[in-house]
Amino acid sequence: MIRARRARIVATLGPASRSLEKVCELAIAGADVFRVNFSHGAHAEHARAIQAVREAEAAVGRPLAVLADLQGPKLRLGAFADGGVRLRAGHALRLDLSDRPGDAARIGVPHPEVFAALRTGALVLLDDGKVRLRVVRHGPDFAETVVEAGEALSDHKGLNLPGLAIPIPALTVKDRADLAFALQEGVDWVALSFVQRGSDMAELRSLVQGRASVLAKIEKPSALAALDEILDLSQAIMVARGDLGVELAPEEVPVVQKQLIRAARLRGIPVVVATQMLESMTHSPTPTRAEASDVAGAVYEGADALMLSAESAVGDYPVEAVSTMDRIITRVEQDPRWPELMRAEYPVEDADADALVAAARRAAEAASTACLVTFTTTGQTALRLARERPLQPTLALTPSLNTARKLAILWGAEARVAPELFDPEDLARVALEQAGLSGLAEPGQRVLILAGLPMGSPGAANILRLAHMPLRR
Questions:
Q1: CB–CB of 420/465 below 8 Å?
Q2: How much is the mean pLDDT over the chain?
Q3: CA angle 167, 173, 174 (to 5 degrees)
């Protein structure tokens, strides 16, 4: 299955979609990467979902990636004696470390790090910002606050501290257990939630030890201040607009999204845009016009992948959500102005290898060029080529199934497993064979080949070769 679009689709698996039948339907509809959300569900359920992806991969005939999304240090309230309370503006509410059930006067917050980070006058957001509190007095184990907005609060709602860095480890005890399980199951990507600093990603990489690629979810404003060091240690990033949108003013989120996409593209690492892209399709067979425009905007900005969350995990129309996103992406990429807008923030060529890859992109613009073929061991050559955003299809040939799966998240790359080559004379023959088998090139058309010598060794591309598909006899 060769898709007619370059931007990729990440679909979250859940009760509505983790059966083998549904995973196959989602893959056929256009999903490339399947997210397993460790914030919900048991390991046994996740294991069955991952196995379903592996079986669906064989059924659809193209590599599919599994993304394990670790929950991270999500801050939550304790429980109320009656399940919840009613609030009003001016209401006094005390936060403390006690595990006693809460009431209208106080509620427990089982996170000492929250009180260590608080300042007088600080804003506390509860339940994704539906309740706003202002700190009037605080200590190491309490905070007295006044309600500024919000009418109701119930058990275990989330808590955010906009503008404050919280001294809490990025990997919790639960995350470490989930990570060990995910790596044992052979996932392709691991996403770390609530990244605040480069050291968070360094810790994750030290635990993963190359067994999967690592992705940083940018959902806290403090991560924006440390973005360069986070990018240095990440193999992809996600614009996680849910929590990011809680801690930033709404008008800031689109600007930050553009900044993050641009930063990732300049680094040449994949960037995923996530959260509420087709939210109404959780319970509706069609999206709103605003949601369609949101998806289109991310495609025009050059995002590598777009993610569905509740729409595919627990929604009533998971397959329809994927196919709708597929149609929107495809239509945008047919817009004559799309290349111009998508390339508006063009990366700088800063190395010899980048210059060669840029030359391949320019050479591929000739009308007679059908596709590009890259030979890659680790995926780096395909990553460099995707950075240039060539408009022709890119066939990434690798001897490693793990590499092919990891590339499923990458803009424009169709990864396939091919025998490992050691003789440069075999490059053109294998490239033309695979381009023909994939339906990417017709007899007489030109194929551009990008590879590196010595063959079979990881490293930068240093060969650019032209070849022509043989004419039929």
A1: no
A2: 93
A3: 115
* Structure tokens given for 441: 């090139």
Contact 329, 5 (CB under 8 A): yes
Counts for the chain of helices (H) and strands (E), in that order? 17, 21
Closest to 326 in 3D by CA, of 30, 11, 58: 30
The reported pLDDT for the residue numbered 366 is: 80
**Would you kindly state where each structural domain of the chain is located, as residue ranges?**
8-73+170-334, 84-160, 352-468
CATH homologous superfamily for 8-73+170-334?
Answer: Phosphoenolpyruvate-binding domains (3.20.20.60)
Residue 40 tokens, joined: 């919900």
Across the chain, which has 473 residues, the per-10-residue mean pLDDT values are: 88 97 98 96 97 97 97 91 94 95 95 94 93 96 96 92 84 96 98 94 97 96 93 97 88 95 94 97 97 97 97 98 98 96 70 74 84 93 92 94 97 94 88 93 93 73 89 76
The 10s digit of each residue's pLDDT in 185-224 is: 999 999 999 999 999 999 999 999 999 999 999 998 889 9
Helix (H) or strand (E) holding 115: helix 112-117
Q: What's the pLDDT at 362? A: 84
Backbone phi and psi for residue 268, each to the nearest 5 degrees, phi listed first: 75, 30
Burial of 454 (0-12, 13-18, 19+ CB in 10 A): exposed
Rounded (to 5) percent helix, strand, coil in the chain:
35, 25, 40
Q: Is the dihedral of CA 116, 117, 120, 124 positive or negative?
A: negative
Say what the pTM is.
Answer: 0.92
Give residue 455's identity as a one-letter amino acid code.
M
- 218, 219, 220, 222: CA torsion to nearest 10: 10
Class of domain 84-160: mainly beta
C-alpha distances (whole Å) from 434 to each of 238, 371, 393, 397 are: 32, 11, 13, 8
Q: Which of 310, 307, 289, 306 is nearest to 298 (CA)?
A: 306
Beta strands in 70-158 (DSSP E): 84-86, 92-96, 106-108, 123-126, 131-139, 142-149, 152-154
CA 190 to CA 432: how far, in whole Å?
Answer: 34
String of DSSP letters for 308-331:
ESHHHHT-S-HHHHHHHHHHHHHH
Separation CA 418–CA 2 (nearest Å): 16
Domain at 352-468, CATH homologous superfamily: Pyruvate kinase, C-terminal domain (3.40.1380.20)
Strands (E), 379-460: 394-398, 413-417, 446-451
* pLDDT tens digits, one per residue of 334-352: 999 999 999 876 655 555 5
What positions carry a catalytic annotation?
35, 76, 217, 275
